[in-house]
Amino acid sequence: MADKPDIVVCDACPVLCRIREGRTGACDRYGNVEGALTRLDPVVMAQRTAEDQGKMVPFLSGAGDWDGNLVQPSESFLTGIGSGTTYPDYKPAPFIVSSRHQDVDMVTVVTEGIFSYCGLKLKIDTDRFIGPEQAAVRCEGEQVGHVTTAEYGSQMLALGGVRHLTGGSKKEGNVTCQMMLTLCNKGAVDLAIDEGASLTVQAGKSPVINGVREERMRVGCGSATIGMFAKQWHGLLDEVIVVDDHITGVLTEHQAGRFLGMTPAGIRVRGRRSTPGRYFQVAEPGTGWGGTDISDPLSIIERVDSKSAFPGLRLLMVSTTGEDAGYFVLDDDLTPVPAEMPEAVRLVVERIGENCEPALVSVLFMAGAGGSLRAGVTENPVRLTRSVKQSLTRVTCGGAPVYVWPGGGITIMTDVTRLPDNAFGYVPTPALVGPIEFTMTQQDYAALGGYTGDIRDLIEVTGEDKVQVTPWRPDNPWPFGDDGASLQATKKGEAS
Ligand code: SF4
To answer: 7, 18, 27: which to mutate for ligand 1, most atoms within 8 A of CB?
Structure first.
């Protein structure tokens, strides 16, 4: 590997860094230690020991430092974090480890994938307008993604992806890679959306939109809010209008009001009537009431019908988070006049807020593991794909569960908050480096053409390699199955 005595060539990614003794390569993951190419970080092993919960144990350097008695193989899972890469996987994965669980011999193939086909899906719990669908999302001025279809109570972003990593300028690729790396490692990133908002986003934290931290996720759309609270408003009010960018609800026209025997109060709101008591497009999207652009709720009232409305009519206008609310009483001219909100009404408004969940940012990492990475697992890559699809092989990222998309390939998606901290790295191609593990029975591993001659015992690995122990996250499903034999059981089930 060394073409000069003091230089080693790193072949862990296509950059092929030439590394002088005592120095590291471009990604800082590999270095030249006394003339040998060395993965500098320890490989991370997660353990299900109660006494380790909540604290990190310093890594041991292997080769004699490790007290093998500390390792309980049945309670240990070797993750891909720090394991190294073998791109383009012309040789077996860095770690192929055996362990025994409930009398079943298991194998975990452990590696770090180099993902240029990878992206992030961000779910931002807010109904505030952050930008038009398809608008460019920028980081440091570079486009790194776009606004995609909003979901229930949340705005969605699609970030990263191969087009921004490698299909644009070098700067666009590097900024995209660093943005993704920061978010995957649970850091905060500032983003700006064309014709939209500025955002600070971080996995598991509340979003900051135009400098204001979002506290509440809406309880539902305006129609849903009517449905939830109609009974509590009945008798206290003659009309309630729940302002929402999606569906604005009008209590007395709504099915929930009809069910309570209420008759339409004659207050007509703007917008397009969808079904009784449910109105679309009462205003433009914005950062005002209920994700609309309005700050004066009365501006969405088109007219008051004198045939139905009456002086003294009690009207509540409220947003879907309860953060904005106004109480009005119609005067003799049927004009809504602001009045002090009765205590009983205020309590129901507060209950809307109480029913809102905290607004959070969710970051899902999505990547394709169906390419050459598979060749590090088996000599016949398509068999790994089939084994995953048949649920014979369980895929995890740093021990975190993944969703495997249907269809071709092994396209995975995982919540970055369920991985240990700083689980991701990068290479300057640019691409993200992420841990990935494939766990199956030894029998299945042999059947899919795995490198059975390279299987090492977990105890052997901890004795020879730098290993860092971290507590297993108890909310992650144990990759070997709760009974240690679920994969075997699954196999039998498939066969029958
Ligand atoms: S960028 Fe990192 S992985 Fe790639 S060749 Fe250089 S040191 Fe090795």
So the answer is: 27
User: What 8-state DSSP symbol labels residue 216?
Assistant: B
Q: Is 165 in the pocket of ligand 1 (CB under 6 A)?
A: no
> Using a 6 Å cutoff on CB, does residue 15 contact ligand 1?
yes
8 lines ligand 1 (CB under 6 A): no
Closest residue by Cα to residue 204 from 97, 123, 83, 313: 123
DSSP 450: B
Nearest Cα to Cα of residue 396 among 436, 367, 369: 436
For residue 276, cis peptide bond before it (omega within 30 degrees of 0): no
Place of tokens 């009483």: 329
Helices 343-354, 222-233: inter-axial angle, 10-degree rounding: 140
C-alpha 193 – ligand 1 centre gap (Å)? 33
Separation of CA 29 and ligand 1 centre (Å): 7
What does the DSSP assignment read for 227-269? HHHHHHHBTTBSEEEEE-SS-EEETTTSHHHHHTT----SEEE
Res 50: pLDDT: 56
Report how far ligand 1's centroid is from the alpha carbon of 25 (Å). 5
Which of 7, 11, 15, when mutated, tests ligand 1's pocket best, judged by the most ligand atoms within 8 Å of its CB? 15
For 258-325, the DSSP string reads HHTT----SEEESSEEEETTEEE-SS-BSSSGGGBS-S-GGGGEEEE-TTT--TT-EEEEEETTSSSE
d(CA 248, CA 140): 37
Question: Which pLDDT score is estimated for 482?
Answer: 59
pLDDT in tens, 65-76: 444 456 788 899
Cβ(13) to ligand 1 under 6 A?
yes
pLDDT tens-digit readout, 122-148: 999 998 999 999 999 999 999 999 999
Closest-CA residue to 477 (of 409, 413, 412, 395): 395
- Is 210 a residue whose pLDDT tops 60? yes
Weakest mean pLDDT among 57-66, 156-165, 291-300, 363-372: 57-66
Which of 30, 32, 83 should be mutated for ligand 1, with most atoms under 8 A from CB?
30
Contact 190, 291 (CB under 8 A): no
Is residue 40 lining ligand 1, measured as CB closer than 6 Å? no
How far, in Å, is the centroid of ligand 1 from the Cα of 6? Answer: 17
CB of 29 shorter than 6 A to ligand 1:
yes
**Residue 428 in contact with ligand 1 by CB distance below 6 A:** yes
| pLDDT reported for residue 451 | 95
How is 343-367 classified by DSSP, letter by letter?
Answer: HHHHHHHHHHHHTSPBP-EEEEEEE
